[in-house]
Amino acid sequence: MKIALVLSPFLYKRCPLIGLAYLLAYLKDKGFEVTIFDLNAEMEVPNEGEETIWADEEFVEKFFYERYSLFESQVEKILHSGAEIVGFSLWSTTKYTSLSLAKMIKQRDKNRQFGNTLLQPAF
Length: 123
What we know:
four-stranded parallel beta sheet
């Protein structure tokens, strides 16, 4: 089974995040084909250090639509990966971009399943 793990913007790049790498290693060990999409690394960070702004749904909506073509290209890459399950690593600062991405993916492929890396794997 193919799985896509997505980290959507924004987490400030203070230190490397290893949670998705651990999950990738675990899933590969169990025989799954896994691809990580680190969208956080693909985008520049506005308002460096002001994490509270990402809790403002209107700010995130504006941010998302100003970069819609970039998000759209990432969605195409995720869909092109052939992943049957798409998991999002959720943080308070990535909640709204993750939900917007999930909606875009679901609009393009209603059969795609979603997961959340905050949940314990059921394997």
